């Protein structure tokens, strides 16, 4: 997300020199297309064999592919909190301390949410005259104080939580859909263009998160089943948004960034997506859990059809984002000089809850802790690493390797299969750099107050705004605050 802050500042300099005909007050518009549980291997351009994503593939042909872009967490809520705050979950509070190394999110009974002290991207943009809209899944807390309007968004069309059921059930209320304007994404873009007011559209579609869904015209279209139908419909949506930008003649003033919030849900087996050549998936800190199918599109500003190595240095993009994500001070997220920010190499930290599981420095990744999922869950049929078994990695209990991390070279071994031997010269030369990066990180780490520790039935969506008008409010049960249980 820092990219956008960064480009905002960079663009302002550029605009001062060149100027725009239709100028949005000299600002660049931002569109983030965030997929839910879509894997690295789900796009044709990333090698999906059925080749069912022509619009996403075209976006990549016109933009740049970022094959080693990471989410900040292998699960929805913390990943999204990082995307919008530019800070790791351990800092913005989107983690739990109920048990060591457990993933947590914001189900309907969660008490916490995005803290007020976090400055979200739309809040920063508002200061620069932008109007922001979120369409889709919020997932940063559902109590009124946590909703998008209180955190910088001007418009919200979507749901505060995941859309999974049960539905029409009085014991668990349905997840409400908020709609405060008669616009969808395209109408929002059109209206903003007419006003020449800069905009940020956060398009957080959740159709590829279980239970999957697709609209009638897309049902049965994919060789992959319902998951593929959902991907095809999203691909269509991406095409619509990009062609709208072209039609309005504002493509060069709009940076579009496509990615996903976490790896594909391998536990869903044939009903989930694909993480391509990577190990395991969603919920894990292996590559399959956090490496995302990412494309940046900005005609006239990003050279088309590139992968990683470009004259703009986009291959350092990941590092840049993480550089900002893990900065303790908001002020430091602003970059005054594009090159100075882009050419800073920063490590990538893989967290599971409160536990630093792994770190990537350059092409090397060291696992300090390893865990797939518990034996108990595995015996119930949940497997985050189906068909994959790497010794000491895909293990059924949390294993501590912090004294002698398991080291892999991701450039050669992106599947994390071949551990570099601890007595090798390579290991001995790399590990000190990793150790230094971890020490630096921990020395500067100021943990946020954990937001995902407590659950209470009383905070569920029993009586969301608007329920009175349609006579659908449910009685709110008495408060029953307790520690949430996180099995993964
Ligand atoms: C790796 O796993 C094997 C078999 O479980 C075990 O004997 C060995 O100690 C483990 N190695 C490390 C470094 O943990
Ligand atoms: Ca997700």
UniProtKB/TrEMBL annotation:
Keywords: Calcium, Hydrolase, Metal-binding, Signal
InterPro entries in UniProt: Alkaline_phosphatase_core_sf (IPR017850), Sulfatase (IPR050738), Sulfatase_CS (IPR024607), Sulfatase_N (IPR000917)
Signal sequence region: 1-19
GO MF terms, alphabetically ordered: arylsulfatase activity; metal ion binding
Sequence ranges assigned to domain Sulfatase N-terminal in this UniProt record: 29-305
Pfam family membership, one: Sulfatase_C
Lineage top rank: taxon: Eukaryota
Cofactor requirement: Ca(2+)
Protein family (similarity comment): Belongs to the sulfatase family.
The protein's name in its UniProt record: Sulfatase N-terminal domain-containing protein
Cited PANTHER family: ARYLSULFATASE FAMILY MEMBER, N-ACETYLGALACTOSAMINE-6-SULFATASE
Keyword GTP-binding part of the UniProt annotation: no
Organism: Elysia chlorotica (Eastern emerald elysia)
């Amino acid at each position: 997300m820092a990219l956008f802050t960064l480009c905002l500042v960079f663009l302002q300099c550029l605009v001062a020199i060149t100027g725009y005909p239709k100028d949005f007050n000299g600002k660049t518009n931002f569109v983030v297309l965030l997929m839910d549980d879509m894997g690295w291997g789900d796009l044709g351009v990333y090698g999906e064999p059925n080749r069912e994503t022509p619009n996403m593939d075209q976006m990549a042909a016109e933009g740049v592919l970022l094959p080693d872009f990471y989410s900040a967490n292998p699960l929805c809520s913390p990943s999204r909190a990082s995307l919008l705050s530019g800070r790791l979950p351990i800092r913005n509070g989107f983690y739990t301390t109920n048990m060591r190394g457990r993933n947590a999110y914001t189900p309907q009974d969660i008490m916490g949410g995005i803290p007020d002290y976090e400055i979200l991207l739309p809040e920063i943009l508002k200061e620069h005259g932008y109007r922001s809209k979120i369409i889709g899944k919020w997932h940063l807390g559902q109590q009124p104080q946590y909703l998008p309007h209180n955190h910088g968004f001007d418009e919200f069309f979507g749901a505060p939580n995941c859309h999974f059921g049960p539905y029409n059930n009085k014991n668990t209320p349905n997840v409400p859909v908020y709609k405060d304007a008669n616009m969808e994404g395209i109408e929002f873009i059109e209206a903003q263009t007419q006003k020449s007011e800069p905009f940020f559209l956060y398009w957080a579609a959740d159709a590829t998160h279980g239970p999957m869904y697709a609209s009638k015209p897309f049902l049965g279209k994919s060789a992959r089943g319902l998951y593929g139908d959902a991907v095809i419909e999203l691909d269509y949506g991406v095409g619509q948004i990009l062609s709208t930008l072209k039609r309005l003649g504002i493509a060069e003033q709009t940076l579009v960034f496509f990615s996903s919030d976490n790896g594909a849900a391998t536990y869903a087996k044939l009903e989930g997506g694909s993480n391509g050549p990577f190990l395991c998936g969603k919920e894990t800190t292996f590559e399959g859990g956090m490496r995302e199918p990412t494309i940046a599109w900005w005609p006239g500003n990003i050279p088309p059809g590139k992968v990683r190595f470009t004259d703009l240095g986009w291959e350092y993009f990941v590092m840049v984002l993480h550089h900002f994500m893990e900065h303790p001070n908001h002020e430091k997220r602003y970059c005054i000089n594009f090159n100075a920010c882009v050419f800073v190499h920063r490590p990538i930290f893989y967290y599971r809850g409160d536990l630093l599981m792994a770190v990537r420095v350059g092409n090397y990744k060291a696992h300090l802790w390893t865990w797939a999922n518990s034996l108990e869950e595995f015996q119930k049929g949940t497997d985050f690493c189906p068909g994959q078994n790497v010794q000491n990695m895909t293990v059924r209990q949390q294993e501590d390797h912090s004294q002698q991390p398991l080291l892999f070279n991701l450039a050669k071994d992106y599947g994390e299969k071949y551990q570099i031997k601890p007595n090798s010269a390579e290991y001995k030369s790399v590990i000190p750099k990793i150790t230094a990066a971890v020490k630096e990180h921990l020395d500067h780490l100021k943990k946020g107050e954990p937001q995902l520790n407590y659950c209470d039935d009383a905070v569920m969506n029993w009586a969301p705004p608007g329920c009175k008008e349609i006579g659908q409010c449910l009685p709110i049960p008495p408060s029953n605050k307790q520690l949430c249980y996180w099995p993964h």
